[in-house]
Amino acid sequence: MEILRRSLYQRLREFIAQENPAIGKPIEDLPQYRDLFIRFGAAGYVLRYRIHLDSIYIVHIQHYREVDFQTQMGTSYETLSL
């Protein structure tokens, strides 16, 4: 499972780097962090990441339907379909 997680994170980092590292929405209180909404079926995921120098660090991935998603993340996201 760890190998799968690492592979997924690596592919996501590569995708963000190729598209545009600033593609995600900046976090108001944490400007060095960004949230990217990834559409998946009827719902999706929010990927929080940080850009530091030439590296992209994925902080966490949260499912859209998690209970506290609306209060934590808000609803004003541009979506990305993969």
Q: Keywords for this structure?
A:
82 residues, alpha+beta, YaeB-like fold, 5-stranded mixed β-sheet, 2 helices, globular, disordered C terminus
Short description:
The chain is α+β, with helices and mostly antiparallel strands and 82 residues long. It is built from two helices and five strands. The chain is globular, with a radius of gyration of 12 Å.
Which secondary structure elements does this structure contain, and how are they paired or packed?
Blueprint: H1 2-19, E1 25-26, E2 33-40, E3 43-52, E4 55-63, H2 69-73, E5 79-81
* CATH architecture call: 2-Layer Sandwich
What percent of the residues sit in helical stretches (DSSP H or I)? 25-40%
Beta-strand content: 35-45%
How would a crystallographer describe the biggest sheet? 5 strands, mixed
Instruction: Using the coordinates above, name the CATH class.
Output: Alpha Beta
Q: Please give the number of β-strands.
A: 5
Assign the CATH topology: YaeB-like fold
> Mean of residue pLDDT?
76
Order of helices and strands: HEEEEHE
How would you characterize this protein structure?
28% of the residues lie in helices and 39% in strands. The model is unreliable at 73-82 (pLDDT under 50). The chain starts with a helix and ends with a strand. It is of the alpha+beta class and 82 residues long. The protein has one domain (2-81): YaeB-like fold (2-Layer Sandwich), CATH 3.30.2310. Strands 1, 2, 3, 4 and 5 form a 5-stranded mixed beta sheet that branches. It is globular. The chain has helices at residues 2-19, 69-73, and strands at residues 25-26, 33-40, 43-52, 55-63, 79-81. The protein contains 2 helices and 5 strands.
